[in-house]
Amino acid sequence: MSTVSKAIDLLNWFSAERAQIGLAEFQRLTGRDKATTYRYLCALEESGFLEQDATTRAYTIGPAVLRLAHIREVTVPRRAGVRRVLPQLAEATGELAHVSILQGNSLMTLTDHSSTRYSARVVLSEPELPLHATGSGHAVLAYCEPSLRDATFKKLKRYTEFTETNQKELDQRLQAVRDTGFGIGNESYEEGVYGIGVPLFDSSTHVAGALAVASVATRVDDEKIDTIKCELISAARQITHSWGGEVPEVLDILWTNTLISAVK
């Protein structure tokens, strides 16, 4: 990993729950030595990507990130493209609907919307979703460039007893995604959570992210799965279109067949 990549990677440790991080915590999280970590932090602070609190000495996200995020949203309006669709998907399925985007080798949550139909609901707490352990991740890996799959296969972390950490068997699961058009995460990332994901595409014609519905596993039955899949298809087509992309013909045929089967 290059020096620039290592420095920028520090930004990925921030989240809504971890808005401030000090030097000692960065050391613990990254496993790097103090001097190197401090040098990276100073460079990020100097360029405006981080700010340091004068009292606590902890670091927070700086204004440069906000400026780039604004430019990204203005020029490539990902969030605007899902603002109307996501609440509709959540209400139609009664579950948590969320969109994630591919950033380098990571799948980052863009936004989510939860239905209020049930008191017990899935909560999306982490900004980054593991590609090998989620329905969203499987949907992306099945349609991404081979280089991303190769990078993912090098580090298959186990999150639950159902996480697939065998490369050969994970490859078989990804083939199942290509055969059906849906990525499935059955308690493979979080116990008690069943997720179904589909890929999203942009104007580059490449997979750009994923749309998924996460349900409390005990509520999932065949009827609910059919409902979620049909609603995902409609929503994914709308979002992909709003992002200037097109669903690949082979995948579009799979989805159309799914809709036809649901009507019968």
Describe the model.
The protein is α+β, with helices and mostly antiparallel strands. The protein has 2 domains: 3-67, Winged helix-like DNA-binding domain superfamily/Winged helix DNA-binding domain (Arc Repressor Mutant, subunit A), CATH 1.10.10.10; 76-263, GAF domain (Beta-Lactamase, 2-Layer Sandwich). The chain is 46% helix and 18% strand. The chain is built from 11 helices and 8 strands. A hairpin with a 2-residue loop joins strand 3 and strand 4 (106-114). Helix 6 (85-93) runs antiparallel to helix 10. The mean pLDDT is 92.
List descriptors.
264 residues; alpha+beta; Arc Repressor Mutant, subunit A; Beta-Lactamase; 2 domains; globular
Distance between the termini: 52 Å
Give the overall shape. Answer: globular
CATH topology of the largest domain: Beta-Lactamase
CATH architecture of the largest domain: 2-Layer Sandwich
Instruction: Please give the count of helices.
Output: 11
Q: Portion of residues in helices? A: 40-55%
Rg over CA atoms, rounded to whole Å, is: 19 Å
Total number of distinct structural domains: 2
Average residue pLDDT: 92
SSE layout and pairing:
Elements: H1 3-9, H2 23-30, H3 34-46, E1 50-52, E2 59-61, H4 63-75, H5 78-82, H6 85-93, E3 96-103, E4 106-114, E5 128-129, H7 135-143, H8 146-153, H9 167-180, E6 183-186, E7 193-201, E8 207-216, H10 222-242, H11 249-263
Antiparallel strand pairs: 1-2, 3-4, 3-8, 4-5, 6-7, 7-8
Helix pairs in contact: 1-3, 2-3, 6-10, 7-9, 10-11
